[in-house]
Amino acid sequence: MTALDPLRGRGSELMRFKVDPSINFWAVDLTPDGKRIAVLTSPAGPIQVFTLRGQPVQILQPKGLNNIQFMHWAANGRGLYVSTGARSGRTLWHVDLQDNATLLWENRGGDWAPGLPSPDGRHMAIQSSDNSSNVWVMENF
């Protein structure tokens, strides 16, 4: 990842992370204060937290969380909202920086459950979907 100045263009390299070319998935999210970047290079995790001040990379791998679909920083930068796939649908978790995960919401039978916090951290928008299927058969038309 490189810095980008709208007037001067591409800047210096900020960080580098490996992406497996056989996995068609990766996600990044910048903290609201712009000091850390969360990187996910596989739905199985881990979540890597990079600082822009050269500190060591922090690795988050909460127990039981796999098939990660989305992640967004909490407004206060003290954790992430992580959406995962489950057999019965999708789940939304809060993961703190000590690797603790708290289940917040389940979307049984749905395809999505990403959570987007408001800038003040007092509200949460949760995208949701549901699947309903019917089969229609037409004969002799």
Structural notes for this entry:
By secondary structure, this protein is an all-beta fold. It has a single domain, classed as YVTN repeat-like/Quinoprotein amine dehydrogenase (Methylamine Dehydrogenase, Chain H, 7 Propeller). Helix content is 0%, strand content 44%. The protein has no helices and 12 strands. The strands form 4 sheets. A 4-stranded antiparallel beta sheet has the order 3-4-5-6, with no helix packed on it. The chain has a 4-stranded antiparallel beta sheet with strand order 7-8-9-10, with no helix packed on it. Strands 1-2 form a two-stranded antiparallel ribbon. A hairpin with a 6-residue loop joins strand 4 and strand 5. The radius of gyration is 18 Å and the shape is globular. The mean pLDDT is 87.
Q: What strand line-up does the widest sheet have?
A: 3-4-5-6
Unreliable segments (pLDDT under 50, ≥5 consecutive)?
Answer: none
CATH superfamily: YVTN repeat-like/Quinoprotein amine dehydrogenase
CATH class bucket: Mainly Beta
Shape: globular
Number of strands: 12
Structure class: mainly beta
CATH topology: Methylamine Dehydrogenase, Chain H
One letter per element, helices H and strands E, the order comes to EEEEEEEEEEEE
User: How much β-strand is present in the residues?
Assistant: 35-45%
Q: What is the overall pLDDT average? A: 87
Work out the helix count. 0
Helix content: under 10%
